[in-house]
Amino acid sequence: FVYFLGVVPKPGLPFPVALPPLYRSPPAPFI
To answer: Does pTM top 0.70 for this prediction?
Structure first.
């Protein structure tokens, strides 16, 4: 589920920033 969230939001969108650090950690390196 975390992986999917990281793939949907693209770099520049407020999605990864609004999500908590727990969910933001995985998408950070991916972006």
So the answer is: no
